[in-house]
Specification:
binds phosphoenolpyruvate; alpha/beta; 8-stranded parallel β-barrel; globular; single chain; 10 helices; 38% helix
Length: 242
């Protein structure tokens, strides 16, 4: 099971330091049973992540460009992330799609680049409320998977996060049957694209300690992507151990 934290653009340096200090105190042995924790961090925390040397934790980029280096003002080089110890790349988060206009083909270039450099890729897909209300969940998931995974040779480094946009940061968690149905749709599409039936599908959207174990017990949920509740060590640690 993978429990991933998406810090987004949050936490001051002293808060980030304190987070990991408390984290080590919460878990002195740093053993996480059969859970893996992954932190998706803004670039200014990459040196911190590199210096921590925490065991059983991996970290990744929240965003990275589709080229190694070049005249791309403001972008993050995937090569630098890799050299600093990032193992994961978060791609296609709905905030990148909606606020920064990332298209399916751009997301696909990032997926291909990340895989090519040896990252594990967590590709986010999910529908808006309007799309759900119009009965378009399947179409949206199919299209986002199809576009995001174009020319991707099926592999074991690709992970999917089902994140209904209306559940992100709103406190509205998707109903269990909606999660199960959406994960089935994703599984079906992944199989048709040649991916292994073992490809992990995570759920994200207002996960908190109060609902995490219930969601993790659902059919075909292989982990969680957590935003708000990952900003403090205690709730995130509870989710990790749920
Ligand atoms: C996210 O941003 O990926 C997310 C799931 O956020 P939250 O947990 O705050 O809904």
């Amino acid at each position: 099971m993978i429990i991933a934290a998406n810090w987004k653009m949050n936490l001051r340096p002293c808060e980030a330091q304190n987070f990991f200090k408390t984290w080590s105190e919460l878990n002195p042995g740093q053993s996480l049973k059969n859970r893996s924790a992954v932190f998706f961090l803004p670039p200014y925390y990459w040196p911190l992540a590199q210096s921590l040397g925490l065991k059983n934790l991996a970290w990744g980029t929240q965003n990275m460009f589709s080229e190694d280096f070049g005249a791309f003002t403001g972008e993050n080089s995937p090569v630098v992330a890799k050299e600093m110890g990032a193992q994961w790349a978060l791609v296609g988060h709905s905030e990148r799609r909606q606020l920064f206009g990332e298209t399916g083909s751009f997301i696909n270039k990032k997926v291909l680049k990340a895989l090519n450099l040896g990252f594990k890729v967590l590709l986010c897909v999910g529908e808006t409320l309007e799309q759900r209300q119009s009965g378009l969940v399947q179409d949206v998931l199919d299209q986002q998977l199809q576009e995001g995974l174009t020319h991707v040779v099926p592999n074991l480094h690709t992970f999917i996060a089902y994140e209904p946009v209306w559940a992100i940061g709103t406190g509205l968690t998707a109903r269990q049957e909606d999660i199960t149905k959406a994960h089935r749709m994703i599984r079906h599409r992944l199989l048709s694209l040649g991916f292994s039936p073992e490809t992990p599908i995570l759920y994200g959207g207002s996960v908190k300690p109060e609902n995490s174990s219930e969601i993790l017990s659902l059919e075909d949920v292989s982990g969680l992507l957590v935003g708000g509740a990952s900003l403090k060590p205690d709730p995130f640690f509870k989710i990790l151990n749920s």
